[in-house]
Amino acid sequence: MTLIDGKALFSNIKNGLSLQVASMVSDGRRPPHLAAILVGDNPASKTYVNAKVKACKEIGFNSTVIEYPENVSQSELLSKIEEINHSNNIDGLIVQLPLPNHIDENVVTHSIHHYKDVDGFHPINIGRMVLGLPCYIPATPLGIISLLKEYKIDTSGKKCLVIGRSHIVGTPISILMSRNNSIGNATVTLAHSKTKNLSALTLGADIIIVAMGVPSFLKSDMVKEGVVIIDVGIHRVKSDHTKSGFKLVGDVDYDDVKHKASYITPVPGGVGPMTIASLLTNTLQSAKKMIYSHT
Amino acid sequence: MTLIDGKALFSNIKNGLSLQVASMVSDGRRPPHLAAILVGDNPASKTYVNAKVKACKEIGFNSTVIEYPENVSQSELLSKIEEINHSNNIDGLIVQLPLPNHIDENVVTHSIHHYKDVDGFHPINIGRMVLGLPCYIPATPLGIISLLKEYKIDTSGKKCLVIGRSHIVGTPISILMSRNNSIGNATVTLAHSKTKNLSALTLGADIIIVAMGVPSFLKSDMVKEGVVIIDVGIHRVKSDHTKSGFKLVGDVDYDDVKHKASYITPVPGGVGPMTIASLLTNTLQSAKKMIYSHT
Q1: Catalytic annotation present for B96
Q2: Which of A127, A156, A259, B108 is deepest in the core (most CB within 10 A)?
Q3: Does B65 touch chain A (CB under 8 A)?
Q4: Structural domains of chain A sorted by starting position, each given as residue range(s) with its CATH number in brackets
Q5: Which residues of B touch A189 (CB under 8 A)?
Q6: ipTM of this complex prediction, to 2 decimal places
């Protein structure tokens, strides 16, 4: 069994990005600049935004966090986004989700210009991804592709099962794994809450990408010997074996499954860090106008 | 075995659209207007455009065909599209494909404003389809959904195999069949040229949508009893049994497979007519601003 080390790859990617930033700066250009909008006091949201800001600092990106109270109006958010859309000083803009109920998440996230949509949530970026055109690919799916590429995992003609059809992970990774590309060309099945006899599908799969949101769901008796496992889930569950009384687990019962897997991502340290790596990569691509040649 | 009669449903849809056009006109509004750009002398392209114009006339839509010689420049096409994008008189615009090699099909089709993209090829419409938002769904996939709905075929939890990953049929129908919707909620597998052991997949499927472009490929020994078959292929092959010496066949060996199928589309008269039905439906929706509330 080979552990797919997302933390190590994240570190390598950050090193590579640092060098590119240094080269931009020595050419007299400003570093890439990521802006994040954070609404309300959700502790998880704050943690995620802080992790992104920390990573920006480590590699020399500029970053700006714009905080709003829980009761901010949608129109105030939209006018700030419009301002950033027109700013020559900011390359990427993300709005940390979830937003309060009185705000339409689609309206807000889709108002970010697709040139600066480094989360890859805008319909134009998703549509271009489906069509195989240059675009910002959503962060978690891009992170998964990067891990598979780093570990030279052969996906062509393999049976890939994606469990979970969310807009930000399951659906886009199912599309990416099917496309005609070096990481891709898999025969992909997308399973979800309405799927029957899931075990028959997991047992038949060469590669399983689990993004269903159920702690420790996937067990060793559900997979075949040599399977590749990518675990997107992350849950805080009670534990008698840690000081805090809690531990982090994924959608896969790691200790049970690892003996049968040829490759497996741990939780934490697998897919999670790669999401930030993708966001930084997308932001650098925006600063360098590698996807869209806007001025 | 029930034959899925696309010709009959096309006729019903045209009747419904006619009534809506009559109602619009009696309200003092102009009828929906579809414009088509046709480049060069490709006989198949002319046939397709003529069929669309004929259907428009039958139901009272206005239609305009703008013809260009093979050597038209891309910029000339783009300026005509820009003109139509701004016209208050035209609701839907299609560019008949293929275009000559010196023209970039993506640049041309994506320059059609997504409000008027009744073929559903624009990245915004594709992205919105992935996200489950109101949009113009590509004509052939929408036609397939309409057939399944008309025949009240239960798709929820069924194993659906889509063969072929083209941008205009296989990929979008695989996305639509997976989504959480009345026609949808299937467990979808997308097969393609790199898929191994296709027969194992066809034998396991409850619903097979074949869009691979190989005449009479799917045989009875590859499917299970009671399967639902949707055949997107259309090929002109030699025949000793017709006056012309040719006949039309699909990707399915219809005479061989029909005995095992619970539902099956014939070729011709199955999916084919539904493509035009979808185009007309999308154009009416544009005229009524049902998808996008632009002015």
Answers
A1: yes
A2: A127
A3: no
A4: 27-116 (3.40.50.10860), 139-273 (3.40.50.720)
A5: 187-189
A6: 0.95
